[in-house]
């Protein structure tokens, strides 16, 4: 690890002032410290923001919640109002990492965690995300984890966060502060597709500090859930995941929200499937037709082709579960397995 300056900020303005060129904010450190140790990132200095007063979850005037950037993943998942109004978010967070890591990991850091592509983590191989212009080893290499949607000739990796898939269906807003003032970024515009600049994961500008995530009032989210397919029961990122919320009237879909993880460079809001399903009877046949319409733009190779039926089956199964009145959280509350 190369030497760097380390400073601790006590206020947001102080954090913004302390950050110099080539520096980075340090929150829980569960992703950034790994990168520094592995030699895949260098910084001129770290500004520790972990002591900033951004640890509250408060109600907003519009009936939503404002989650401070330093609320830990554990505290967010355990908060009664999150569990009640946005079960998909609590379930998504609990599907990720481990208890110890969720205790350290913060809301802001989770938004900015970087890909788990094996080539990104191996400095001996080309990776456009780690070293722009060097090439993408994953395109013709180990392809099991590659994206289905929105990849480019420069990068085929996927976004690793579970929490962010839930935030995508909730139309969250990321609040960022810079020396110039505050900026509010709609969640759909926060993460980006790789295009020809895959080194940029988000639209956050250099020097901006995330101070909060705002969750609008989303009544349909009270009936929502998250499901994740992974290779181990813990410590494993999503092969494919689905965040879903469903509102029916007389057996007809009045509102549906769907987002998929493990399939694109950003949490993938399945807008095509949502449009296809809205107004239709809530049958497995229509659920399948909706995700088929979404999959029309999917591109896969021999090693990640398994993700297509996995995603199709998961979407149908999750929507059936919501239609039939069950969610993992409800089963747990009733004393069953979560
Ligand atoms: C073994 C392991 C397994 C994991 N499994 C999963 C999983 O299954 N699912 C999942 O979703 N995640 C998983 N994670 C990732 C984990 O969720 C992230 O490491 C964590 O959320 C990052 O948060 P942090 O506060 O530690 O961020 P840090 O490591 O402190 O920072 C990450 C990045 O965000 C920047 N940053 C942090 N806070 C701010 C801010 N407020 N404003 C601006 N920039 C900021 C930092 O500069 C850095 O670039 C796993 C991690 C590990 C180590």
Descriptive tags:
338 residues, binds flavin-adenine dinucleotide, alpha+beta, 12 strands, Uridine Diphospho-n-acetylenolpyruvylglucosamine Reductase, domain 3, five-stranded antiparallel sheet, four-stranded antiparallel sheet, single chain, 13 helices
What is the fold's blueprint, element by element?
Elements: E1 5-8, H1 12-18, E2 24-26, H2 32-38, E3 45-48, E4 57-59, E5 65-68, H3 73-78, H4 80-85, H5 87-94, H6 99-104, H7 107-111, H8 163-169, E6 173-178, E7 181-186, H9 187-190, E8 209-215, E9 224-229, E10 240-249, E11 252-261, E12 268-269, H10 271-277, H11 284-295, H12 307-323, H13 328-333
Parallel strand pairs: 1-3, 2-3
Antiparallel strand pairs: 4-5, 5-8, 6-7, 6-8, 9-10, 10-11, 11-12
Helix pairs in contact: 5-8, 10-11, 11-12
The structure holds flavin-adenine dinucleotide (FAD).
InterPro entries: CO_DH_flav_C (IPR005107), CO_DH_flav_C_dom_sf (IPR036683), Diverse_Substr_Oxidored (IPR051312), FAD-bd_PCMH (IPR016166), FAD-bd_PCMH-like_sf (IPR036318), FAD-bd_PCMH_sub1 (IPR016167), FAD-bd_PCMH_sub2 (IPR016169), Mopterin_DH_FAD-bd (IPR002346)
Domain FAD-binding PCMH-type: 1-220
Organism: Deinococcus wulumuqiensis
Number of domains: 2
The CATH topology name of the largest domain reads Uridine Diphospho-n-acetylenolpyruvylglucosamine Reductase, domain 3
Q: Major sheet: size, sense and barrel closure?
A: 5 strands, antiparallel
Count of helix runs:
13
> What is the arithmetic mean of pLDDT?
96
Q: What is the share of helical residues?
A: 25-40%
């Amino acid at each position: 690890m190369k030497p760097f300056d380390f400073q601790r900020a006590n206020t947001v303005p102080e954090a913004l002032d302390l950050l110099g060129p080539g520096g980075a904010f340090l929150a829980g450190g569960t992703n950034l410290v790994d990168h520094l140790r592995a030699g895949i990132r260098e910084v001129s200095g770290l500004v520790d923001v972990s002591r900033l007063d951004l640890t509250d979850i408060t109600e907003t005037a519009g009936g939503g919640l404002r989650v401070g950037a330093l609320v830990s993943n554990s505290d967010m998942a355990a908060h009664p109002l999150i569990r009640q109004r946005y079960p998909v978010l609590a379930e998504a967070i609990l599907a990720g990492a481990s208890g110890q890591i969720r205790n350290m990991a913060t809301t802001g850091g989770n938004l900015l965690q970087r890909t788990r592509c094996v080539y990104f983590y191996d400095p001996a191989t080309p990776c456009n995300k780690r070293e722009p212009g060097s090439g993408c080893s994953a395109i013709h290499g180990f392809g099991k984890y590659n994206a289905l949607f929105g990849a480019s000739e420069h990068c085929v990796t996927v976004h690793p966060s579970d929490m962010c898939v839930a935030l995508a269906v909730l139309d969250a807003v990321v609040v960022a502060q810079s020396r110039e003032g505050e900026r509010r970024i709609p969640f759909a515009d926060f993460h980006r597709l790789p295009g020809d600049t895959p080194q940029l994961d988000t639209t956050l500008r250099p020097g901006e500090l995330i101070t909060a995530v705002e969750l609008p009032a989303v009544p349909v989210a009270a009936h929502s859930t998250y499901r994740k397919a992974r290779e181990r029961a813990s410590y494993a990122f999503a092969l494919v995941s689905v965040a879903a919320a469903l509102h029916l009237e007389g057996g007809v879909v009045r509102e549906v929200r769907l987002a998929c993880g493990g399939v694109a460079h950003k949490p993938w809001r399945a807008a095509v499937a949502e449009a296809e399903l809205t107004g239709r009877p809530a049958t497995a046949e229509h659920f399948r037709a909706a995700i088929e319409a979404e999959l029309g733009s999917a591109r896969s190779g021999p090693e990640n082709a398994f993700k297509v039926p996995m995603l199709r089956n998961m979407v149908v199964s999750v929507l059936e579960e919501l239609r039939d009145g069950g969610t993992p959280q409800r089963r747990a509350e009733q004393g069953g397995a979560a």
